[in-house]
Design brief:
Order of helices and strands: EHEEHHHHEHEHHH
Oligomer: single chain
Strand content: 5-15%
Structural class: alpha+beta
Shape: flat
Strand order of the largest sheet: 3-2-4-1-5
Largest sheet: 5 strands, antiparallel
Length: about 250
C-alpha cells in the first residue's frame, strides 16, 4: 500500500541519517521509495529543503510533486517558497486532497515539526514492516497516511464544482436582460474562461497521475525481478493493481 511517511527528528543530522537508512532499505528491496526529501525548519519558522552535494536524493517518479506541496504546507506561509521548488504543479491543500492527503495529517505534522527540527518525508511502499522500528531507533516521530486514489470522492467533488459553475454562468446570462448587454457579455466570457481553465487543470492532473502510474509500474517491475518469495508476490500484486487503475482511467477517458 502506497503511503506518505513523515518522520520528525530533533536535528538535521538525524534526519539525514534516517534518509540513508531509507535508501538502504530500498536497496534491500524491503521498501520501494518513489520520492524522498529531508527538510529543516529554522528558528523563524521557514522551511528549507536540505541539499546534498553527494546527490543522495531519490529521483522523482513520473514528475511527482506531492512532497513539494507538503513542504510548503508544513512550513505555513513561510514554507510556500520552499515547496514551490519541488512541487510545480501541485501546491495547494485542495490538490493534496486529490492525492490522498488530508488536513488532519498536515496539521499533526505541523505541530510536531517545531522550529529547529527536521523531517524526512517520503512517498513509498513497504513490503516488509521495518520502518517503525528503524525510525524509532533514531529517535524519530513517525506520521503515516495511505495515499488513496479516492477516485469516487474526486468524481463527486468535480461534479459539485461543475454544477456550481454552471449555475453561476446561468445567473450571469440572466442578468443580460436587466443590464447592459456588452458589459455582462464580457463577464460571461470571463466566467466561461474560468470553467474551461478548471477543466484543463483537471485534465493536466489526470495526465500527470497516469504518467506517475506508468513510471511506478516500471520501477516495481525492476524491483520484482530481483525479489523473491512473499515480497515478489506483493510487488506483482501491486503492479497488477496499478495496471487495473491505469486501464480504468483510459477507459473512462
Amino acid at each position: 500500500m502506497e503511503e506518505i511517511v513523515v518522520v520528525v527528528f530533533e536535528s538535521e543530522l538525524k534526519a539525514i541519517e534516517a534518509f540513508k537508512v531509507l535508501r538502504r532499505l530500498d536497496h534491500q528491496n524491503l521498501i520501494t521509495v518513489y520520492e524522498a526529501q529531508v527538510i529543516s525548519k529554522g528558528s523563524g519558522g521557514a522551511v528549507r529543503v536540505v541539499e546534498s552535494k553527494d546527490a543522495w536524493s531519490f529521483p522523482l517518479i513520473g514528475g511527482t510533486t506531492i512532497l513539494g506541496a507538503l513542504v510548503g504546507l508544513f512550513g505555513g506561509p513561510l514554507g510556500v517558497a520552499a515547496g514551490a521548488s519541488l512541487g510545480g504543479v501541485i501546491g495547494s491543500l485542495g490538490d493534496l486532497k486529490e492525492q490522498g492527503v488530508v488536513e488532519e495529517f498536515v496539521h499533526d505534522v505541523q505541530l510536531a515539526l517545531a522550529p529547529d527540527k527536521s523531517a524526512l518525508i517520503a512517498d513509498l511502499e513497504e513490503w516488509v514492516q521495518c520502518l517503525d522500528e528503524k525510525m524509532a531507533q533514531l529517535g524519530g516521530v513517525m506520521f503515516r497516511r495511505i495515499r488513496d486514489a479516492v477516485e469516487e470522492e474526486e468524481k463527486k467533488v468535480a461534479a459539485l464544482e461543475h454544477r456550481a459553475e454552471s449555475r453561476q454562468l446561468k445567473a450571469e446570462e440572466a442578468e443580460v436582460r436587466a443590464h447592459d448587454a456588452a458589459s455582462i457579455g464580457a463577464k460571461i466570457d470571463h466566467v466561461r474562461g474560468d470553467i474551461e481553465n478548471a477543466i484543463e487543470r483537471r485534465r493536466i492532473h489526470m495526465r500527470l497521475r497516469q504518467q506517475q502510474r506508468e513510471a511506478k509500474i516500471k520501477a516495481l517491475e525492476a524491483k520484482a525481478e530481483q525479489a523473491q518469495g512473499e515480497i515478489r508476490r506483493r510487488q506483482h500484486d501491486r503492479i497488477a493493481e496499478l495496471r487495473r487503475e491505469y486501464s480504468a482511467k483510459i477507459t473512462a477517458g
